Amino acid sequence: MLKIWSMKQQQQKSEAAAGQSKKKKVTAAQLRVQKDLSELSLGSTMKTHFPNPDDILNFTLTLTPDEGLYKGGIFNFTFAISQNFPHEPPKVKCREKIYHPNIDLEGNVCLNILREDWKPVLNLNAVIVGLQFLFLEPNASDPLNKEAANDLMTDRDRFKRNVRSAMAGGSVKGESFDRVMK
Amino acid sequence: MAVNGDSRARWRYMDHILTRPGAYTDPEWGEGIIGTLENAKVLVIGAGGLGCEILKNLALSGFKSIDVIDMDTIDVSNLNRQFLFRQSDVGKPKASVAADFVMKRVPGCKINAHVCKIQDKDEEFYMQFSMVICGLDSIEARRWINALLVGMVDYDNDDSLKPLIDGGTEGFKGQSRVVIPRMTSCIECQLDMHAPRAAVPLCTLATIPRQPQHCIEWAHIIKWEEERKDIQLDTDDPEHITWLYRTALKRAQEFGIQGVTYSMTQGVVKNIIPAIASTNAIIAASCCNEAFKIATSSAPALANTIPEGVDPETYDPDEEFAPAPNNYMLYTGDNSIYTFTFGHKKKPDCPVCGNLPKDLTVPGDQTLQELIESFAERPEAQLKKPSLSTGGKTLFFSSPESLRQQTEGNLRKKMRDLMEDGEEVVVTDPAFPTEFKYTIHLT
How many Å apart are CA A43 and CA B37, to the nearest integer? Predict the structure, then answer.
């Protein structure tokens, strides 16, 4: 059985570890997340938080935009990464109920690379940059919150006012939002 | 013809192949091949569409010692193609029903059924088999068994090398491939051969659904969260599927979309890809022929051939420009028939097989800080911002900042307090494209 490989095997014998570890190993998904995390460039507007530092597949990213309409707000996103990463994208949700054309009231985020355009070559940094971009340039043409998108498209000033009052914990058109101000 | 468990009568014609050498038989080929085949212990992962075919084929080609593992139970929708199951079996575990059926049909063949997840079994369990055949629909499970088999190879023990034969189908398409762990390209090297799951933008679902599937996805991803947040969606619970179906139907009516049905709802939510019985049969057949050839050396198998035009004496598949041995067969039946067999090359930076752990002996009372400093002296690892972890523990991350703060306390701890003897440590550093793995031996 498997004759042609036996020679090769002999050759490698000396190079490889003699004793094999029977312990729980770092999975390919964990390894990739470890690499991605150590290569994050977070800047001053972003912070991570790991509820359990031994579980790097689940964490929170806090975004504090320092420019744009959402300046002054604190937004938390939960990242849940499965063992199928990077074949599958991370699951990302906004923890607060916010008024944003691309984020619905349940915290679902409409960001192309989190769903239809995810590719295994993309990394966590790409996702984080994408999230940051959503707060700088809310996009009315891909709406998840139709009301907010409509406001942004038809009356930018009213949209701005709505963003401010929602961020302060007020309500917009009868819908109340979480206070997210610093 | 009378057939009983001890007789070779059933395999009289097959034995013509097994008792005579041919042009392609292995040079080592000789007497006793029938015994090798009968004694080979084969593990079949999955007892579904492919699994039924694989079990039947193995038993009918003379394998006598088979184990099958599957955590699933039989659903009424399986009966059209998973031919080892009957109406009265609905609700019973696939693995045991399949095993019982084949054993009854092929006397002398012993099949052990395991009703559990593959992750529930340990290395010791997998060590008893001479090869593993997968008929799975999950990439996650494939990656798991692949990493396990690659990790199990011990060069001092020939029996630890277990070929992995993997079949997969999707509609009219399929593939079969053979992995010789560490020798040839592994499932992780070939991860990009899997097509990503087609997804519709969330905003399309939320605002302008065009297809019945969009309405179902909307009910599944958005509406369930909104209205039944506290209930964990169980795609096997008819009440849950009914709720999703009704919700989707209402939305479809609002947008004037036709075609939402209960079974479509089930299909979309469970991500059921239409399975075609004959594609399963083709792929399972090729997997089992490879298993047969590997077990008997009666002919070269996938992944166990020298590429054409290469001098076998000097062939080294790990060389940068050397062709890989043919190890991957793809079958495309949706536009006439096209098959292609090629050599998928090992990835030098494969996180599973490309970078194997090196042994490292560390004094148990050395601190993690001292260990990291000692890495700096190793020429291969001039670390700038190292991050270290074991399978279950984050030892130290240089960044991001929050994780550094949470883990820097470990730097002062002694190695024996951070890990057990023989554990694997993975070291990454943004300055290096690949990671370093060490098996730590504490003294």
Answer: 61
* A104: CATH: 3.10.110.10
The contacts of residue B29 (CB under 8 Å, 6+ apart) are B21, B297, B298
Per-residue pLDDT tens over the stretch B161-207: 999 999 999 999 999 999 999 999 999 999 988 877 778 888 889 88
Contacts of A34 in chain B (CB under 8 A): 387, 389, 397, 426, 428, 435
Instruction: Kindly report the nearest CA distance between residue A68 and chain B, in angstroms.
Output: 23
Residue numbers in B near A143 (CB within 8 A): 203, 206-207
Chain segment B290-314, per-residue pLDDT in tens: 999 999 988 889 998 888 888 888 8
Ramachandran region, residue A72 (left: φ > 0; alpha: ψ -120 to 50; beta: rest): left
Domain housing A33? 27-176
Architecture of the domain delimited by B202-269: Orthogonal Bundle (1.10)
Q: Which residue has the tokens 């009315």?
A: A140
Query: Are residues B430 and A38, on separate chains, in Cβ contact within 8 Å?
Result: yes
User: Hey, where are the domains in chain B?
Assistant: 9-195+276-342, 202-269, 358-442
Let me know if residue A57 belongs to a domain.
Answer: yes
What is the second-level CATH architecture of the domain B9-195+276-342?
3-Layer(aba) Sandwich (3.40)
Measured from the Cβ of residue B283, the count of other Cβ atoms closer than 10 Å reads: 25
Which residues of A are the active-site residues? 110
As for the ipTM of the complex, it is 0.85
Q: Report the alpha-carbon distance of residue B159 to residue B196 in Å, rounded.
A: 35
Cβ-contact A88, A67 below 8 angstroms? no
Tell me, yes or no, if B109 is annotated catalytic: no
Q: Write down the catalytic residue from B52, B116, B189, B203.
A: B203
Please report residues of B whose CB lies closer than 8 A to that of A6: 158
CA-nearest residue to B141 within chain A is A84
Total number of domains constituting chain A = 1
Residues 6+ away with beta carbon under 8 Å from B428: A31, A34, A35, A38, B386, B387, B435, B436
**Assigned architecture for domain B358-442:** Roll (3.10)
Of B143, B180, B406, the CB nearest to A28: B143
Distance from CA of B84 to the nearest CA of A (A): 31
Q: List residues bridging with B332 in a β-sheet.
A: B173, B338
Backbone angles phi, psi at B31, to 5 degrees: -60, 160
